[in-house]
Amino acid sequence: MGCTVGSAGAIAGRVSLVEGGWVLEAYTVGGHIRTSLADDPGFGLGAEKRSYLFAEEEATAPAAGWYFFLLPSISFDHALLRHIKTAGIDLHFGAPEAGLTVGFQSLTATRPAPVDRDAFRDLNFIPQSPIYACVSMRMERSC
Predict the structure, then answer these.
(1) Which segments of the chain does DSSP mark as H helices, in order?
(2) Residue ranges of the domains in the chain?
(3) What are the residue ranges of helices labelled H in 2-106?
(4) Distance (Å, rounded) from C-alpha 43 to C-alpha 48?
(5) CB 46, CB 85: distance < 8 Å
(6) What is the DSSP string of 86-120?
(7) Bridge partners of 119?
(8) Cα separation, 114 vs 111, whole angstroms
(9) I need a surface site. Which of 58, 75, 140, 143 has the fewest CB within 10 A?
(10) Hey, which residues does 47 pair with through a beta bridge?
(11) Rounded Cα distance, 14 and 36, in Å
(12) pLDDT tens-digit profile of 46-99?
């Protein structure tokens, strides 16, 4: 067991390039304090996997590969989709859903569409195989 604060500590992450974007998978075991308002601020105790899907047009991908003890600096509010798997106790204060989890939770949520303009998104995401994800922000190119 370990302790993680934000994106540093007992954490491992993998960045994978996918069609039209990239995925960050982050793994923690032990205590995890999430300090970023853009990434569901809160506290967890247990095991957790968080997957984030980004469009290449909206967020520049860090170098692909594994990261240990320190994740690359990322603006999580640019994630088009997030998938969260938690086993343990988790107190979460922000989006996608505020609340308390005791036991197991699996949650997949997309970023809300902008209300001030038209937007197109075609996403293909399988939680068990995030490296096969696909992102399209243009109608001309679908997943």
Answers:
(1) none
(2) 2-136
(3) none
(4) 11
(5) no
(6) EEEEEEE-STT--EEEEEEEEEEEEPPPPSSS---
(7) none
(8) 9
(9) 140
(10) 29, 87
(11) 19
(12) 999 999 999 998 899 999 999 999 999 888 888 999 999 999 999 988 776 788
